[in-house]
Amino acid sequence: MRPLALYVPTPERMRALGKALGRTAEPGDRFLLEGPFGAGKTTFVQGLAEGLDVPTPVSSPSFVIESQYRGRLALYHIDLYRLEHVEPELLENLEEHLYGEGVSAVEWAERLPDELRDGANLLRFQLEGEGRRVELHTDDARIQRAASAV
User: Fold this and answer.
1) Domain CATH for 16
2) What is the C-alpha separation between 106 and 122, in angstroms, rounded?
3) CA angle, residues 17, 13, 106, in degrees to nearest 5
4) How far apart are CA 113 and CA 40, in angstroms?
5) Which of 42, 107, 123, 140 shows the greatest Cβ crowding within 10 Å of its Cβ?
């Protein structure tokens, strides 16, 4: 399936994209987020949380690796920026959340081993002028429809 390319002009629209995907999210959905600093990954996750009816504010978990939120479904917000590689103990904990009954969003997902990337929804964020370009790679028609509708 060809990737879906989206131009996202503002942080509000990035949150709206995340919210749309959060509203359609189902248990076990995994969102792998790749892109440079300031490209909108955390803003996307804030919208995802809103779509999952998470009542608490979402911020970057850079210093704790993972934050958990409760909403319609559990949201596991994982940030791998500070890791050069994933240790076996951490890998075991990540697998539990990546393949659990909640929804996971992984920033700096390119640091995940390939076996944990298979079958996930991949979003690549790029800076483009004042806005952002998001390239969505997914085989899930439900996710593609939700993203296309924003």
Assistant:
1) 3.40.50.300
2) 10
3) 45
4) 23
5) 123
Domain of 90 in residue numbering reads as 4-148
User: What is the pLDDT tens value at each position of the chain, 150 positions in all?
Assistant: 679 999 999 999 999 999 999 999 999 999 999 999 999 999 999 999 999 999 998 987 666 688 899 999 999 999 888 766 667 677 777 788 788 899 999 999 998 888 888 889 999 999 999 999 999 999 999 999 999 998
Report the pLDDT value the prediction gives residue 63, as an integer from 0 to 100.
Answer: 62
Domain tally, the chain? 1
Helices (H), the chain: 11-24, 41-51, 88-98, 114-117, 141-148
The torsion angle over the Cα atoms of residues 142, 123, 85 and 27, rounded to 10 degrees, is -20
pLDDT for residue 95: 80
Question: Quick one: which of 119, 123, 127 has its CA closest to 106?
Answer: 123
Residue 118 has which token pair? 């298979």
Backbone angles phi, psi at 96, to 5 degrees: -60, -40
Give the list of residues 6+ apart from residue 17 with CB closer than 8 angstroms, or none.
Answer: 6, 8, 44, 47, 134, 147, 150
